[in-house]
């Protein structure tokens, strides 16, 4: 029977390469890390709870991957290089099969992004996973939500709504088929944070946020922080083939606007930086897409257009919220 210390040693201590700037890691009272000269430290935290963010059908490997990915997505939105994570893991019991798969998913994504697990805690209770991630950004170059200005162009980093459609397919029997199911479920379970793009956007993007609760919900936070409004061109929103072949036009727009778990980046760029953005992202397979423009503050803060004309798109749901399914501030 595993106890707390043998659990840590077996699944989290004797694992993989360490970053050279991780001076003291797991096994001591605290971690010691060395931040590069002339860099700022960025710290983010996310929690995933059984029955809220995942259920019993979610593969433990996907949980391990995703809890790291959602944190790295926050770091990406600020232009930071991911460096270290700490893990707080609450388990109902020490299920070795579950732990082996969970740890594999966590270590795989950490290795891919050169991010070291440096500590944490394990306790017994309802299944809950919390990760705190830390990254570095050159001093003064962190991207925030508050730098958008009227006249800026509004971009997203990739197709929207796929994870939400994948969730629908796993939960609704009448949708759990079709040629796109596997890809959509992969998008839901194994998101890819836009880490490289985030670092590319330093000194290019005016403001940035990652899309975790849905484009509308997260864009509202950016607009509120910057004191501006936005026009969104619905026909410019990037939609995957899976989305357009599964849903009607308006249903696809609604899913892209309100579904969470995309972990794409939404950011603004001034007119004089658009050419620079295109040059810096020319090598990317999926290049950022311009979906609208920032405007002076007004009500409503977000206006939809279709083929250049104002378009009414009734929405009964604005994005994910833990307490009342409406837009709220995101930590």
TrEMBL record:
Q: Which reaction does it catalyse?
A: thiamine phosphate + ATP = thiamine diphosphate + ADP
Q: Which UniProt keywords apply?
A: ATP-binding, Kinase, Magnesium, Metal-binding, Nucleotide-binding, Thiamine biosynthesis, Transferase
Q: Select a single GO molecular function from the record's annotations and give it.
A: thiamine-phosphate kinase activity
**What EC number(s) has UniProt assigned to this enzyme?**
2.7.4.16
Write out the residues that bind Mg(2+) 5. 213
What positions does the entry give for Mg(2+) 4 binding?
29, 74
Q: In which pathway does it act?
A: Cofactor biosynthesis; thiamine diphosphate biosynthesis; thiamine diphosphate from thiamine phosphate: step 1/1
Q: Which residues bind ATP?
A: 120-121, 145, 212
Q: Which SUPFAM superfamilies match?
A: PurM C-terminal domain-like, PurM N-terminal domain-like
- GO terms classed as biological process: thiamine biosynthetic process; thiamine diphosphate biosynthetic process
* Binding positions (substrate): 53, 261, 320
The record's InterPro entries line, in alphabetical order, gives: PurM-like_C_dom (IPR010918), PurM-like_C_sf (IPR036676), PurM-like_N (IPR016188), PurM-like_N_sf (IPR036921), ThiL-like (IPR006283)
Binding of Mg(2+) 3 occurs at 29, 74, 210
Q: Which Pfam families match?
A: AIRS, AIRS_C
The residues listed in the UniProt record as binding Mg(2+) 1, with positions renumbered to this chain, are 45-46, 121
Gene3D superfamilies per UniProt: PurM-like C-terminal domain, PurM-like, N-terminal domain
Residue ranges annotated for the PurM-like N-terminal domain, each copy included: 27-137
Matches recorded under CDD domains: ThiL (cd02194)
The top EC class, named as a word, is transferase
Identify the residues that bind Mg(2+) 2: 46, 74
Name all PurM-like C-terminal domain ranges. 149-295
Q: Which family does it belong to?
A: Belongs to the thiamine-monophosphate kinase family.
**What's this chain's function?**
Catalyzes the ATP-dependent phosphorylation of thiamine-monophosphate (TMP) to form thiamine-pyrophosphate (TPP), the active form of vitamin B1.
Q: What else does the entry mention about this protein?
A: Reaction mechanism of ThiL seems to utilize a direct, inline transfer of the gamma-phosphate of ATP to TMP rather than a phosphorylated enzyme intermediate.
Protein name, entry field:
Thiamine-monophosphate kinase
User: What is the originating organism of this protein?
Assistant: Idiomarina seosinensis
Q: Which gene encodes it?
A: thiL
């Amino acid at each position: 029977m595993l106890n707390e210390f043998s659990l840590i040693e077996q699944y989290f201590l004797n694992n993989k390469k360490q970053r050279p700037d991780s001076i003291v890691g797991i096994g001591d009272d605290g971690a010691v890390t060395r931040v590069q000269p002339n860099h700022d430290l960025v710290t983010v935290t996310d929690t995933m709870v059984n029955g809220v963010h995942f259920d019993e059908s979610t593969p433990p490997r996907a949980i391990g991957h995703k809890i790291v990915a959602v944190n790295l997505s926050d770091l990406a939105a600020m232009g930071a290089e991911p460096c270290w994570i700490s893990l707080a893991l609450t388990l109902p019991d020490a299920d070795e099969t579950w732990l082996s798969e969970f740890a594999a998913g966590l270590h795989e994504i950490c290795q891919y992004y050169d991010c070291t697990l440096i500590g944490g805690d394990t306790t017994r209770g309802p299944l809950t996973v919390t990760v705190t991630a830390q990254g570095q950004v050159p001093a003064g170059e962190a991207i925030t939500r508050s730098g958008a200005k009227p006249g800026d162009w509004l971009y997203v980093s990739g197709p929207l709504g796929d994870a939400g459609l994948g969730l629908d397919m796993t939960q609704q029997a009448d949708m759990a088929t079709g040629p796109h199911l596997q890809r959509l479920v992969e998008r839901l379970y194994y998101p890819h944070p836009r880490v490289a793009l985030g670092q590319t956007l330093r000194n290019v993007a005016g403001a940035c946020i990652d899309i975790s609760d849905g484009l509308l919900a997260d864009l509202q936070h950016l607009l509120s922080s910057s004191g501006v409004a936005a026009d969104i061109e619905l026909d410019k929103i990037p939609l995957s083939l899976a989305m357009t072949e599964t849903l009607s036009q308006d249903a696809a727009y609604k899913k892209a606007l309100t579904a969470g778990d995309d972990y794409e980046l939404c950011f603004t760029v001034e007119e004089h930086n658009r050419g620079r953005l295109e040059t810096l992202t020319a090598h990317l397979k999926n290049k950022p897409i311009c979906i609208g423009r920032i405007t002076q503050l007004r009500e409503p803060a977000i206006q939809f257009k279709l083929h250049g004309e104002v378009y009414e798109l009734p929405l009964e749901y604005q994005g994910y919220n833990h307490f009342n399914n409406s837009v709220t501030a995101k930590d």
